[in-house]
Amino acid sequence: SLSLRLFFTIWVIYIFHFNPFICISPRFVYVTMSLSEKCSIRSDGLYDQDTLIYKGHPYISTNPGMSFMAAPFWAIAYHLIYRWLPKTSFLSHKTVHFLLVCFISFALTSALYSALTALLLALFIYKRTQRLWRALLGAFLYAFGSIAFYYSTSFNQHTAIALCSFLIFTLIFEPEIIP
Asked: How many angstroms separate the CA atoms of 56 and 176, rounded?
């Protein structure tokens, strides 16, 4: 259907514009790594910036919500594929490991949530105007012509907040468009 094509088009474009070097991403990535690989929220030996020390252990000093959302995805990737790699593999290098965690976390949370928000916006506009071109224009302007694009290409919590906020707005004003 058109909705699925719109969603996957936006999602794939976000994936191809992946940007792991935005300053907030490392905090979430290291918590995701710690949750999935060590079953702990401690950042012992992983991250030493913006941390709080509690009972001798460092903890990330930011909201770990996105890390909790991404941890199951990285745990699956880590335990099924990544942990069986030989130590000499280039994928075992610390930087490559970080980028893989960041990419999988971003693709299955931030990019996905932003693409869902754009789809929801298109459905909302279509319901209000009954014009397909307006719905598509609204979705593409949101997805690629607003600040949402910047946040949708890295692993951060802004896209989840936008999805939740717009979902609540839609449920209040047009609840019948939610399948």
From this structure: 52
Task: Note the pTM of the prediction, 2 decimals.
Answer: 0.89
Token readout for 38 is 């060590």
Confidence band of 89 (pLDDT split at 50, 70, 90): confident
Query: Taking a C-beta distance cutoff of 8 angstroms, is the pair 67, 25 a contact?
Result: no
As a whole number of angstroms, the distance between CA 148 and CA 58 comes to: 32
Beta strand residue intervals within 25-140, DSSP E = 51-54, 57-60
Hunting for tokens 């506009």 — which residue is that?
125
CA angle 152, 102, 89 (to 5 degrees): 145
Return the half-sphere exposure (C-beta side, CA atoms, 13 A cut-off) of residue 73.
19
Whether 105 and 32 have beta carbons less than 8 Å apart is answered as: yes
Q: What is the DSSP letter of 93?
A: S
φ and ψ at residue 54, rounded to 5 degrees: -135, 120
User: How does pLDDT run across 33-56, given as a tens digit for each residue?
Assistant: 888 888 887 777 665 566 677 787
Phi then psi dihedrals of residue 36, to 5 deg: -80, -35
Picking from 6, 2, 18, the residue whose alpha carbon sits closest to that of residue 140 is 6
